Structures are given as C-alpha cells and as structure tokens.
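Deviations from the work plan: none for this task. Representative record:
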Amino acid sequence: MMFKPLVFTLAFLTGAVGFASSVQAGQSVSLLNVSYDPTRELYQEFNAAFAKHWLAKTGQSVSIKQSHGGSSKQARAVIDGLEADVVTLALAYDIDAISEKAGLLPANWQSRFPHNSAPYSSTIVFLVRKGNPKGIKDWDDLVKPGISVITPNPKTSGVARWNYLAAWGYALKQPGGDETKAQDFVQRLFKNVPVLDSGARGATTTFVERGIGDVLINWENEILLSTKGSGKDKFDIVVPPVSILAEPTVSLVDKIVDKRGTRQIAQAYLEYLYSEEGQDIAGKNYYRPQLQSVAAKYATTFPAVERFTLQEFFGNWQKAHKTHFADDGTFDQIYLKGPK
Amino acid sequence: MTLVLKQPSVLPGFGLTLGFALFYFSLIVLIPLSGLFVKTSSLTWEQFWHTVTEPRALASYRLTFGASFLGALINGFFGSVVAWVLVRYRFPGRSIVDALVDLPFALPTAVAGITLTAIYSSNGWIGQYLEPLGLKIAFTPLGVLVALTFIGLPFVVRTVQPVLQDLDKEVEEAATTLGANRWQTVRAVIMPELWPALLTGMAMAFARSVGEYGSVIFIAGNMPLKSEITPLLIMTKLEQYDYAGATALGVVMLVASFLLVLTINLLQWWSSARHTAR
Amino acid sequence: MSTETATTVRNEEWKASLTGESTWVRWTLMALALGYLTLFLFVPLAAVFAEALKNGLESYFAPFQDPDTLAAIRLTFIAASLAVPLNLVFGVAAAWAIAKFEFVGKQMLITIIDIPLAVSPVISGLIYVLLFGAQGWLGPWLIEHDIRIIFALPGIVLATIFVTVPFIARELIPLMQSQGREEEEAAFTLGASGWQTFIRITLPNIKWSLLYGVILCNARAMGEFGAVSVVSGHIRGLTNTLPLHVEILYNEYNAVGAFTVASLLTLLAIVTLIVKTVIERKSAPSRSAHDAAWNAQPGSPS
C-alpha cells in the first residue's frame, strides 16, 4: 500500500529532472569559460574573434558560454561542479584552490602557458570624481580622515585582494616601512571604506552609478573603461606612482576537457589569447598585452606606473592568502579591532 | 490500551495522499535540510561554538534579527492602521490599494532590492532629500530596515484584515450604548480580538525578514561588523571554501526559523481557539 | 417597502456615526495608512517603471532583443512550469490527508510544511549544493553517471520547488479543514469512487483557493533570486533566470536595462494581484452560496 506513493513520487521527480536535463542536452561544440567579474566585455569580443578564427581554421563551429562573478566565488562554483572547460580568474590563488580542493587540474598548471599563464597584466589605480575635488594623488591620500574609499571585499573579490596587497606593499616600500606600519596603514584605509561589494563590478557600480565614495580602487582596465564612454565627463583617473603588478591567470580544467573531449579546442582557445589578435583585443579592452609588438601599439593607452611584484613583498599567493585573507589573517584582525 | 495512530474513516486515499506528501516533502525539504546538520557535525563542538559566536557572526545576528524585529514592529503598527482603514473606510481607489498591499509578496526580491537602492541612495528619489539632513539610508543598517519593512508589509495587513472584517458590530454598538467612548471601545472590545492575529502577522513578517537575501543585498553596506546580514556571511564563508563554517551558521538560522514557525503555528492555533470559543 | 429600506439605511448610518471615530481621527488614520503605503509601496512601484523608461521607449525594448534576456525568460518559464504543477499535486495531497482524516502527528505535519517559508533562500540553495555538488554526498556518483544537477536546470528547478512548496498547501489546508468531510463522506457512502468524490465534490469547493495558490506559487517561482543564485552557476544564456539576469544587467552598468527586465517581473506581479482580486470577488459569493445551501437543510446531507 505504501509502495504506490513511493513509485508515484519517484516517477514524478525523475520525470521532472529528466525532462529538465533533456531540455539542455544536444548542444553543438561548446566551451564554458568561467571568468571573474570585469572581463564581460573582453570575452564578448574575444569569443567572437576566436569562433571566427576556429571556423576558418578547422571548419568547426564553436559556441563559448560565459559565466562571470567574484573570482573566488567562481572558483568555488567550479569546485562544486560547475563544468568549466577553461577558467580565467583574477589571481593564481583561486586556480590553485581548484587544483587543491577538487583535483580538477594539476598543481603545475601555471607553467603550461607563457608568462606564468597570464596572457595580460594589469595594475591597481584610482578613480575619482571629475576635477579630483579631494586632491587624491597617491596611496597616502586614501587614509586621510574624511576621504571615502570604495573597494570590494577581499574575502570574496579577486581585485580586492590585489587592492589590499598593493596598499600593503606601498606601505612597506615607504622609508622605515615594516609589517606593523603596513597593517596600520591598511587599517586606516579600511576605516574610510563605507561599503564592501562582493565583486569588482559591484564596487564600480556603487561608485559610478550610486555616487558613493570619493575614490574607487580597482583594476586599471575597469577604471579606464569607466573614463571612456559615458563616464568621460564625470570621472578622472588617478595613477599612483607605485602600484602592484596584477596578473590574472588562465588555465584548462583538465578533468572537464578530457571528459567532454574538448581539450584540443580549449587549448587553442587559451593559446589564442596570446596571439596577435588576442593581444590586440586585450589591449583594446584596457588589459596590458604581454606581446611586445602589441604592447608598443597601446603604449599611450596605459599610464606609466612603477609596478612591484607580489613575489617581492609577499612570496607567493599561498603565503599571502594565509597571512592576510584566511581566518584570523590581517584582514580579519583589521575588522575585528578597527572600525566599528 | 491500543495505540490509535489514525481514526478510522470512510474516505479512501489516506495512504496514497499522506504517503506521497511525506515522501515528496522528505525528498525535497527534509533530507536536504538534514544535510546541513550532517555537514556541520563534522565540526567539533568547540569549533561550532567558535564559528557561531565569533564577533562577525554576532554582529550579523544583531543586524539580521534586530532589523527584522524592528521591521515587524513597524509593520505591526502601520499594518494594523492600514487594515483598519481598508476595512472600515471607503475611499476612491480602495480596492486598488487593497490589491497592491500584496505587492511585496509577489514581487521578486532582486527587483525590490535594486529599486529600493535606487530610491534611497544619495542621488535617489528620496535619498537626495535625506542626505543633506544627515540621514543616510542606502548602505547603512537603516537601509536594511527599510528593505525588511517593505518585505514584511503584507503580512500584518493580511492577518488582521479578516479578523476586522469578521468583527461583530453589535458588540461595539453595545459598548457605546453602555457609555464607552470610542477609545475605550477600541481598547477593550476590539484590540483583544486583534491581538492574536496581529502577533501572528508580526511573527510571520519577522520570520520572512530574518532569512531575506535578495532585497537586502543591494541596499546593505555589507561591511563586516556593521551592515552585514547573516545570509551574506554564510555566502562569504562559502566563497572562502569554509563549508563547515557556512553550514554552522546555516544551522543557527535554521533552528531560529523552526522556532519561529512553531511560534507562528501556536499563535494561529490560539487565534482560532478564541474564534471558536466565541 | 421602500420606506422600510430607507429607514434601515438611515438607522445604519446613525449607528455608524455613534460608534465610529471622530472625523479628525479618521483623517489621521487614513493619512498614516496612505503615507506608509506611499512610502513603502507606491514609490518603489513607480520607481521601477520610471527608471526603466528613463532613456525613452526605444531603449526600453532593447534588452528584449538580447538573446541572453530571451534565454532568461525561457528558463524562468521552464522552471516555473515544472515547479508549480509538482507543488500543486503535493498541496492537494497534503491538504486531503490533513483535512479529511485524523491521525497522530497531523499538527506536526501542518507545522513543518511551513518550514521552507522561514528558511533563508541562501540556505535553500546551499543544501542542494551540499547534496548534489561535486564535493557533496551524491557528487561523485552523479559525476560518474554524467548527471548534472547543480549549475544546470535541474538544480534551479529543485531550488525553486523548495521555496514554493508550502504555497498551495497553505491555501488549501485551512479551507478544506473548515469545509469538513461530510460532503465527501456522503458521496462515498452513496457509491462514488474516491477519485469521483474528489473531482466532483472537493474540487469545485476549493477551486478558487486552488487557483489563487497556483498563481501565488507561480509568481514566487518566477521571482526567486537568492536560492537560485546559489545553484545557478550564472552561465549566460543558459542558467540565468530573469531575476538573476536583472542582477547581471545591473552589474554591467546597464541600470536601465536591469529596470526594464525588472519591470517585466513587476508587471507579472501586478497581473498576479489582479487575478487574485478577481478570484476573491468570485469566491466570496460562491462560498457563501455554498454555505447557505448547506445550512438550509440542517442535519441532512443535500
């Protein structure tokens, strides 16, 4: 007697789930690129170019699906089963996490593509209101009382970690700088932060659309994007003399591409980022190309800035993450002790 | 003394309907929810305690439960007024207003979120007038309160309305003939009838607000220790790959939710008992 | 006859004036009520459309030509059209069991059905990730058999079902409980089968509440944000529902586009409310007619 309802229920649910799965079956060759927040425009252009290139080269048509979000949020999704063929994230640490926690790609992934798997580089700069009313010129100005700073949350946003480390590194570089002074500096900086968005795009929206804050710290490419187009008359870019060399990295997700049989095309996809056309598209979207010839072409787009590397002050991402962003790291300490 | 699990009855279909309902509910709700507890049990008691009582978590509870409570109070007062006006008075457009009261219930939370943010930020419809007065709403706990008040709006109105409608006018008239003035009548005759429904509505608004995510996430400042709601803290922990920590907080919220549901059901039972006793 | 009616009306008015509030109290209450509603209801409602139409009518229709928007609309409809019927069957089954029988644990069942209403959407999504995600209980098994639940349509449907499970049940249970079981028992003893009893006796009695429950369940299913956000994967053109798409447009500096899609969802909500009002108008006379007919012959089944 109880058997009937069991069969009934299971039939219903299986039917629903099965129907649901089948609705999405039967796609042509497709790749999923799981990326971080600001690369929407970049990959829109790049994917079209790559599809055209691949069609011409092999006669195969490919469609590339995109997913965007905060870098570690995206990494977590991949770890939980989001079937990405390639990941193009904000920092190497997030891809390391995919390797470590889900075993989807090998630990030596970074050496598989040129420039440590960073097809383009960027840095951290500031965006201010037109005319720079608060006279912001350098990192020091961000910690002055009464200045309102917008940055995303370092716990969830890739660029926010670059922001954090850039500020820290700046403080270390000052004469007499040491870890204590650096922590103090960053603490004073976060005291001036009124709202923490979870991703780079959210922070830009808060600053640009919602009118919150005097200065936005973000990717150079995001900020350059805001100052062209409709933002031209409303914002100015301020480039601090010193900032961090930010290298967003890319990788194949081996287990997935092997399962889906897309390794060859995914490999070609990532390699195309380093090609002249790929580098050109990057440059057009305000990412600093690695290829010398293309970099020369875009030399005037990018302001001059002295960029120190992560390795110089922090060793590697594992160490940096543990010290600063893990539980009870410096960011937690800043928040628990500091602004209330 | 035999244990009677079910009263005998004439009608068929008990096994089928109850069986299906229980299986469906277990599959969709109970088993997945239990997964939360199982995952959390991978923590030791110490770790669990540490996670759910760390300052950031405590601050988030204060905000989440505090703002929800305040929102429920505001809705309790104004909701009753609205219900009274809708039931007792006639004015042009009354039926439209009556229908619109359910809007927060039917509107997607993300839409509510971006709209409230647009209205209350410093260049928003209302925000632009409040900023110069020093009243910042968007990205502050106040913004969270506004969002939660919006979300809970229909609950009190909809639970109080039917009770008001069913009120026996004759009792009020009798009180007046016996010499009570209007305020006395309201206080002694009408309010006692309304209390159960009012409390039920407030409890429901509270329960809904506590878990709310979509409408709050756009307008809250998300600053740890200041304007971070508990659901967001759960998401943040997830994104740090701290699954056990996220589920620990989830368990806290779930227990709170269950207690609220229990309370609401008790209140509803009390309310209906009053009605039938009469 | 007419003088009687006129007198009755005058008497009612006189009574009302004695037992009603003074005028200034009346006006204060109305001002409070309408002020509160304006602030928390009408302004947001107006704002959605104002922001959507900020750039004019032409750009209003622009998002609807975007394939991603169309995919989001499609996905939302599919998810709702799977979730609502399933919850409908559940609601009817649960209400039947609860209203027509007495059994141990009945009150407990009524209570736990309400649980999804009080659970945070974030948790609603999280539990499915814990269950079906690659690192979850069933994860390895699903991967082995190449079944995708999380970050694909099935996960979205499950999360949507979870948050809308109670809606129809909650509409039906009190109604069916108050309607009792005499009619059904009478029909059954007169020889109708269980199914016939349900279709011909129960269904007509509950049809308006049922419809309302379905409408509400549908509105909620289409509008769910938090739970779906956790299980979606945000794959553009594939796993983004309309509410998620609103967030995406918002994050692409396309606030106007976001509000445009939001206005579509708002219109859906308003349609829901209109249908509900119509239903209420219809159910009031039919319910009282039913009750009147039933009470007309006390003690004997009609």
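The mean pLDDT of chain B is 85.
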